[in-house]
Amino acid sequence: MPKGKYWNEELETLPRERLEALQLRSLQEELAFAYARSPYYKRAWDEVNARPEDVKTLADLAKFPFIDKKTQRDTQGVGSFLGELAAVPEEEAVFVSTSSGSTGVPTLSPFTARDFDEFQDVEARLFWQAGIRPNDRYVHALNFALYVGGPDVIGAQRTGALCIWVGAVPSERLLFVLQAYQPTAIWTSPSYIIALGEKALHSGIDPKKDLSVRKIIVAGEMGGSIGATRKAITDIWGAELYDFYGLSDIFGACAGHCEHHDGLHIAEDHIYVETVGLDSGEPLPPGERGELVFTTLRKRARPIIRFRTGDIGRIDVSPCECGRTLGRIYVDGRKDDMFIVSAVNVYPSDIEYVIRAMPEISNEYTIRIFEESYTCKYEVNVENVSDISDDEVREKTVNAMKARIGVRPAIVNVHPHGTLERSTHKAKRVIDQRTETVAKSRGEGI
């Protein structure tokens, strides 16, 4: 059990040159394994004449084709239960999770015994980085039903913390656990921790005074790295907030805040990060903003080579104030969530920033994107928690959106407090009706 600041000090503080040498060796082994064992990769790489032995530098990875969610869906179940991307037979897999299916058909993510053990070691590293210690009581309030974040609790146990496997339960039950067992740490989604705090206050429970939560981990949504959302959470709970990032395609959390909260340290010993142009797909230098592309360096059940995550962000490979040299990613939003209004790129995270910074409205909101007269527009639904009129709240919201984003919403609907639906997991904030509008205009069924 580590006794100091780092879970694995040697790894987490490797000089950049040594870290990249480690990445290159691992990448060469991963590519050779994938080419020899995965039907899909052998076929796809042969088509473009890309060979693992040609990779002499990390930059040579750019010679290989991308994969994405569609690749996973198209190859899933083809040739075997695990599909053509898999590089091991089913007998070598010990665990599978699935994606949420929020962007299409849910996709399987298989793990060998080694994959799973290393997955949990990374979780332990991130928990330790977030300050979880053996004297903590930790509540894991994530869904255990096929969700890749469920098993992350095993990583928390490796830190020596007392772990309470709560899962996704009704708010009343979770509040009972927080009152009865007085845990010091919890992990859930940004939307849910806000809704839970509001419910506690409504029930006469002050999270700051009556509960013992001092560390909150959030994931699954953008909010944990949005300043206004972070403030909204800490104002209710009085706890330190840590944002984690993960994706079912590789494993649970693979990046997270340290105590400085400046970007999310990513497990670069397991994942090689590229940033590519949104349209060109050409690699960009570290620090430039584009689409994040991930390649696994050690996963055996299903290697992931040049996976376009759909997340827009950048990576900073300079050392952090915490002493860690593992790069930090900054995620701005989803590529498929971005929409363009009057030639301005609009991200739901920017809208969230405005809403969470306004004291006149609650933390709940929804966004509707629609087309009118062949023009993209957006609508925002908010709740009035102030003493001023709905019209005044509407005007303030419109002006704040215009100032922050550059384009005002076409519609702002102001609702009474408590009437917008609360989520117990990932909140569905964005409703995109543009496809529906086009389909209707063509007379197609939805």
Structure description:
The structure is a single chain. The protein is an alpha/beta fold and 446 residues long. The protein has 2 domains: 1-335, 3-Layer(aba) Sandwich (Rossmann fold); 339-441, GMP Synthetase, Chain A, domain 3, CATH 3.30.300.30. It has 13 helices and 20 strands. The chain has helices at 9-12, 16-37, 39-47, 69-75, 113-129, 152-158, 171-181, 190-202, 207-210, 227-237, 348-357, 390-405, 434-441; strands at residues 93-98, 108-112, 137-140, 162-165, 185-188, 215-218, 240-247, 251-256, 264-266, 271-276, 283-284, 290-296, 307-316, 328-334, 339-341, 344-346, 361-372, 375-384, 411-416, 430-432. The strands form 4 sheets. Strands 4-3-5-6-7-8-9-14-13-12-10-11 form a 12-stranded mixed β-sheet. A 4-stranded mixed β-sheet has the order 19-18-17-20. Strands 1-2 form a two-stranded antiparallel ribbon. Strand 6, helix 10 (227-237) and strand 7 (240-247) form a beta-alpha-beta unit. Mean pLDDT is 91; it is low at 437-446.
